[in-house]
Design brief:
Aldehyde Dehydrogenase, Chain A, domain 1; single chain; seven-stranded mixed β-sheet; alpha/beta; 24 strands; 2 domains; globular; about 500 residues; Aldehyde Dehydrogenase, Chain A, domain 2
C-alpha cells in the first residue's frame, strides 16, 4: 500500500469513527423506535463486528406506517401537488443526495462491504441521477384523448395507485431504493420503503433528506426489519396497493402469495438471474471482452442479479481467452472496503459467505475444474471475504450453471456453433440479462433476438442509463424499473366518457 493510499484509507476510517448512525424507523416525518423495542444487529462485513442495533418493525409498526402513508395520500398533501412542483422537490432531493454523497457512500460501504470507490462513483451517482431523472419527467407525461365519435369525449388519465410498498435488497441499497421510490413519488403515491435488514442506514437518511427537500410527512415512510416479520406484514397488508420488490426469486414468490391472501395488490418483481456472457470466436477485441467478463462477475463482489456468472466461450478461442481472464482476475483480490484502491470488498454477511463457499464445494464435487480462488481470504480481519473464483469445464445442467450464487464465482462453459451457444444461454429458469461479443452484425441481431432476457448487451456489459427499462423474463420476474415505462407500475388508467349535447 502506498503512503498516499494509506492516508486516504485512514481518512475514510476516521470519518467512519465519527459517523452518526441512524437506527430507528422513519414514520410521519420523524425518527422513532419500534413499538416493541425489539432490535436487530447491523454488521460491518469487513470486520464481522456489530455496527448498530436496528429497530425491528413489527406488525403494529407497519400498520402505523401504512396508516400514515394512507392519510397522506387521502388528504392530497402530495397527490394534489402539481407535477411540476413534485418534480422540483425530487430535483431538490437529488441535489441533497449529491451534497451528502460522502456520508451516504460511507453508510453503504459500512453496511454491505463494498469498496468506498464504488459506493461513491456508482451507487450514489446512480441514486441521485434517478431522483433527478424522474423529477425532470414528472410534468412531461401526458394523458390521452381517445378517437371517439363527435357526440362524445373520452379521456384516458393516469392516476396514482395509493400506497406503494418498496422492498429493496442489500446489494445496492440506495440505488435500488431510488429505482422504486422516485417513480412512485413522481406519480403522486405515498411510499413505505423497507430496506434489507443488512443495510437500513442509507434508507433512513433518505427519509430525513426527503423531508428536507419538501416532501411532506407521511409521504415517504421507512420501516426496517427482516423479511418474515416486516416484509410479510407489508405483503399481507390490506391497505397497501402495490409491492415493488427486488430480491431473490424465492422471496418474490412469497409476495405473490401474500397478494393473493390479502387484497390482490399489484406485485412487481425483479428477481434472480444467471446471465449468459457469450463470446464468439470473431469477438472484435478479446482483451476488452476479458476485462468486461471479469468485471461482470467480480464487481460488487458478484452480488448482482445481473452478474455475468456464466461465461460461454467459443471453443476456438477458449484457451487464449482464459489466459486473459486469469490476468484480469488478479486485479480483484479483496481488500479493505475503506481503501479507495480496493476493487473488491467483503460479502454482506456470514450467511452469504457460507452460501458462496457451499457453491464452491458443490462445483468441485460436480467435477468442475478450479482455475483460481475457491477460498475464503483476509480471515485475520474477522470479515467475510472470498477470493475471485473461476471454474472451467462446467456442465450446463450442473448446479453452478443453473443456480444463482450471488458471489464472485464464475462458471465457464464452452460451445461449438451458434445453436449450441443459444441452447446453453437460454437453458436456465432465469431471463434477466445476457451479453454477446461478435464482429458479425447479422449474428448480433439474430442472436440477441433469440435470447430470452430482458436486457441484451452487444460487445459490452452492464451498459445503459435511465432512458431504458430494466427487468426480466421467467423466474427473473416481471415489470420494469428505469425509464418512463416504470411509471406504468405506479399508476392506474381511468377512462372518463362524456356524452356531448348536440
Amino acid at each position: 500500500m502506498t503512503q498516499a493510499t494509506h492516508e486516504d484509507r485512514e481518512r475514510w476510517a476516521e470519518r467512519a469513527r465519527r459517523l452518526t448512525l441512524p437506527c430507528g424507523l422513519f414514520v410521519d416525518g420523524a425518527m422513532c423506535q419500534a413499538l416493541s423495542g425489539e432490535t436487530l444487529p447491523v454488521y460491518n462485513p469487513a470486520t464481522g463486528t456489530v455496527l448498530a442495533q436496528m429497530a425491528l418493525a413489527g406488525k403494529e409498526d407497519v400498520d402505523r406506517a401504512v396508516a400514515g402513508a394512507r392519510a397522506a395520500f387521502a388528504d392530497g398533501r402530495w397527490r394534489k401537488v402539481s407535477p411540476r412542483e413534485r418534480g422540483r422537490r425530487l430535483l431538490h432531493l437529488a441535489a441533497l443526495l449529491e451534497a451528502h454523497r460522502d456520508e451516504l457512500a460511507l453508510l453503504e460501504t459500512l453496511c454491505v462491504g463494498k469498496p468506498i470507490a464504488d459506493s461513491l462513483a456508482v451507487d450514489l451517482r446512480a441514486a441521485a441521477r434517478t431522483f433527478a431523472w424522474y423529477g425532470e419527467a414528472a410534468d412531461k407525461v401526458y394523458d390521452q384523448l381517445a378517437p371517439v365519435p363527435p357526440e362524445a369525449l373520452a379521456m384516458v388519465t393516469r392516476e396514482p395507485l395509493g400506497v406503494v410498498a418498496a422492498v429493496v435488497p442489500w446489494n445496492f441499497p440506495l440505488h435500488m431504493a431510488a429505482w422504486k421510490v422516485a417513480p412512485a413519488l413522481a406519480t403522486g403515491n405515498s411510499v413505505v420503503l423497507k430496506p434489507a435488514e443488512q443495510s437500513p442506514l442509507s434508507a433512513l437518511r433518505l427519509g430525513e433528506l426527503a423531508m428536507e427537500a419538501g416532501i411532506p410527512p407521511g409521504v415517504l415512510q421507512v420501516v426496517c426489519g427482516d423479511g418474515p416479520t416486516t416484509g410479510a406484514a407489508l405483503g399481507l397488508h390490506d391497505d397497501v396497493d402495490c409491492v415493488a420488490f427486488t430480491g431473490s426469486t424465492e422471496v418474490g414468490k412469497l409476495f405473490l402469495g401474500y397478494a393473493g391472501a390479502s387484497n390482490m395488490k399489484r406485485v412487481w418483481l425483479e428477481c434472480g438471474g444467471k446471465t449468459a456472457h457469450v463470446v464468439f470466436a470473431d469477438c472484435p477485441d478479446l482483451s476488452r471482452a476479458a476485462a468486461a467478463a471479469a468485471d461482470a462477475i467480480f464487481f460488487n463482489q458478484g452480488e448482482m442479479c445481473s452478474a455475468g456468472s456464466r461465461l460461454l466461450l467459443d471453443a476456438a478461442i477458449a484457451s487464449p481467452f482464459l489466459e486473459l481472464l486469469m490476468e484480469q482476475a488478479r486485479r480483484y483480490e479483496p481488500g479493505d472496503p475503506l481503501d479507495p484502491a480496493t476493487r473488491m470488498g467483503a460479502l454482506v454477511s456470514a450467511a452469504q459467505l457460507e452460501r458462496v463457499l457451499g457453491s464452491i464445494r458443490q462445483a468441485q464435487a460436480d467435477g468442475a475444474r478450479l482455475l483460481t480462488g475457491g477460498r475464503q481470504c483476509r480471515q485475520e480481519t474477522g470479515g467475510w471475504f472470498v477470493a475471485p473464483t473461476i471454474f472451467d469445464g462446467v456442465e450446463p445442467r450442473s448446479v453452478l450453471a443453473q443456480e444463482e450464487v450471488f458471489g464472485p464465482v464464475l462458471a465457464v462453459l464452452s460451445f461449438r456453433g451458434e445453436a449450441e451457444a443459444l441452447a446453453i444461454a437460454n437453458g436456465t429458469l432465469y431471463g434477466l440479462a445476457a451479453a454477446v461479443w461478435t464482429a458479425d452484425l447479422n449474428r448480433a441481431h439474430r442472436f440477441a433476438r433469440e435470447l430470452r432476457a430482458g436486457t441484451v448487451w452487444v460487445n459490452c456489459f452492464e451498459e445503459g442509463d435511465m432512458t431504458v427499462p430494466f427487468g426480466g423474463f421467467g423466474h427473473s420476474g416481471f415489470g420494469r424499473d428505469k425509464s418512463l415505462h416504470a411509471l406504468d407500475k405506479y399508476t392506474d388508467l381511468k377512462t372518463t366518457w362524456m356524452a356531448l349535447a348536440p
